[in-house]
Amino acid sequence: MDSVQLEKARLARDPRFDGKFFIGVKTTGIYCRPICKVKMPLAKNITLYHSAAAAAEAGFRPCLRCRPEAAPGTPAWMGTSTTVKRALRLVSEGALDKGGVNALSDRLGVTSRHLSRLFDEHIGASPNAVAQTRRLHLAKKLLDETDLSMIDVAMSAGYQSVRRFNDHFKSVYKRVPSEVRKVAGQKKINKLSFFSQALDDESGFQLKLAYRPPYDFAGVLNFLRVRAIPDVEFVSEDTYTRTISIGGESGSLSVRNNEAENCLSIHLILREANLLVSALEKIKHLFDLNADPYKISQDFDGDSILSDLVVQNPGQRVPGAWEPFEIAVRAIVGQQVSVVGATTVMGRIAKTYGQQTPWGLRFPTPKELTCLDVTQMSMPRKRAAAIKEMSRLVDRGELSFDAAIEIDSLITQLVAIKGIGPWTAQYIAMRSLGDPNAFLHGDLVLLKVVKQKFGIDSDKALLERSLAWQPWRAYAGMHLWRQAATL
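User: That's the sequence. What structure does it adopt?
Assistant: Structure tokens below.
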């Protein structure tokens, strides 16, 4: 975006640009989100930054009113640098909390110098500055939205000690964490009333995760509803609930839309507070909260047919995964069978090999599915054998859905497994790794839709047409899939 577009978005306090840039106010030394409701500063008194980390590195401190830590995350596609995208996801998962930039760059297969150069170009801040801002923002969010002890806040946010947390917080906010919590506490309401009908057990944490509007939450729920694994996932008219497993601990997740505040309201039941941040990252991925619908729809304007579909379903998202391995199993099961049929088989797998928890069934781990009996599953043996082999590779660490892995490399590894084809590998890349450019050009439903809408009658022609939809082909595919119901 150029400076004129950014200035228009700032003056309009446009929520579609929330989290895409931050405003450093020279007269106050504070940086804000573009939606901040404070008195509008003059253009001559501000500096615009591509990230909160860049604003912090320039010496500005976060606004206590608009709470930059509550802004939506970095848009999913960082220009031309997929390395930066992968690095940002690893940093958001805490890769720099215990390791250094050298270790991070090694995981990404680049030098630390090159990684720092990419961050400077695309983010405007160093990897360490991004990690430091992330810790501070997470800590501030936990102070505002939970009753965790100070040591739990510090450890959950990635600080190595409470002292480091206190020193960093005070140096930025010019006050100690307890003072900020006291102010936030005065504004708290009954945190659990929103979910009183969603879960009987009203313990746990309730937090908010912001998104850029528009957000088609109903569309996401519909997608997840027909694919919900029996006794693992539960989808009602307005709520998504599932049994979760993270860090070896089981719990429960429930999600509703809070359209008035452009956020999802989250209810998490976890025994270990230090798993909270990891859980939030998984939720962001599952509900595609970092997407930039304004940019995506803009890039589809050159295709009149596709842009009409975008108008019909504004805020389309590509649902991700709570657990990538689970989605990989689902993709294999779903080969050449109906969605309903695949859901039934997934339920049988969960019931046979998963574990019962107080909140429902936990989907089986890779280790548990290495024992899968290929003769007992109601699917072709070749397909069941593919699940078993993939489970074995994941369990041994020979196959990983880690954010550090290159998408092309993962696809190559997957199709090397007998019984997994290109369609399955692309579907896994789309939902497990959040690849915005994944495209299932050989999908029979897509081919049926494009034949009617575009007059395209072959997967080769569809693949050629899709080149104009890059780097958002996964979103184009979702729009096309939705049209199947109208045929």
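Residues 401 and 410 are 8 Å apart (CA to CA).
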